[in-house]
Amino acid sequence: MNPGIGMLAALLATAAFLTAPPVPAQDAPSPTAIATRLLDRMNAGEYAQAESMFTAEMAKAVPAAKLKAVWESLPAQAGTAKGRGDPTVDTQGGTTLVTVPLPYEKTGLVAKVAVAADGRISGFLIQPAPPPAPAPPADDAGFSERDFGIGTGDRALPGTLAIPKGEPPSAGWPTVVLVHGSGPHDRDETIGPNRPFLDIARGLAAQGIAVLRYEKRTQARPQDFAERAYTIDDETTDDAVAAIAALRATEGVDPKRVFVFGHSQGGMLAPRIALKAGDVAGLVLFAAPARPLLDILIEQNVRMAVLGDGKTSDAERAAIERLKLQVQTARKDGDAAADALPMGLPASYWRSTDAVDPVVEAREAKLPMLVLQGARDIQVVDADWQRWRAGFHDDPKVAFKLYEKLNHLGIAGEGEGSLAEYGTPGQLDAQLIADVAGWIEAH
After folding, report:
1. pTM surpassing 0.70?
2. Helices (H), strands (E): how many in the chain?
3. pLDDT at 313 over 70
4. I need a surface site. Which of 16, 221, 263, 404 has the fewest CB within 10 A?
């Protein structure tokens, strides 16, 4: 999901993955053949036939009309379609995930099709294709990287620990856990060609601070959210708490100097993570919402509608009004159909986000905090920055830094910010990394 605060990757999402209970199938076509048939039908404009391949839950979340709107919007964003690449297959429990590359004129996309054991499609997602894997650190980088798992068994999340070379301090290295913004993110928080978390992790590790980054559960294990009510804590908070516990038990890490760096939604949840984990040394909040996500979601859609041409089209206006109704539904008691809720996510999720007041929770945590904001951020804006300032301007444990040229990803630019610049290669600002390193060293 992406309530507008997270990343470009989720702007093309048609639904969160849903999985159906495994039902043995005989003489059924392969998952690859099923995924291919779905894409063939959409290319042919046969959206009702495509919907007929879905589970009941998927059909409610993504009816034919929504499929049509998303599929036919792709050329406007990505250019002319250039065929398909070879599919890859990954089996997760009773569900098979088929990933199909979709090259377009301007960019690469991938279709992810989750096929349940009974042959029905239980999930469908269109995302920008991931860039090539980053090169390993140079031999003289001053730090190394190693695999680091969070949790055990099938539900474990893969991660990477960047750790300084050489003999650690007697108590161990100060260490940072990176917590993602909204949406299904990889460990580098990859958005188009940019990898903010990779930049942060390697930048801090080069300055003597260990950093853990990991795959977000919605990215690595979407099936964990199948057919059940879940909350923002299930999505984000609980895994960050587990990551902190795992680090404290790691040789070379100072268990009393583990910090949380939260970006966007991760920053909003950082105080809650600290309260649940206990003994966190401090918090770094970058582009952190300070207001309810549902309110920000509407605000962002209104803002995005006028970016570029300064106008709101009839279609955009209708979509905004529909979103407002969905938000009202999410805030009412009782169950609601997926298509009556923002982004097709369950009411339990949205109600749990409404229960988060990050400023109040940060006051309760009573921790040192470094609050960072880019002045060119068009997603988390000055109203949030000012609420953080108002809440902690007189707290000596809290420091603030505003960066005039930075956008939501921490990348510098000129003029008014836009979503389009997320597709331009860049690196997270070196001064921001240096400021974080200096603050951590002082705590």
Report:
1. yes
2. 15, 12
3. yes
4. 404
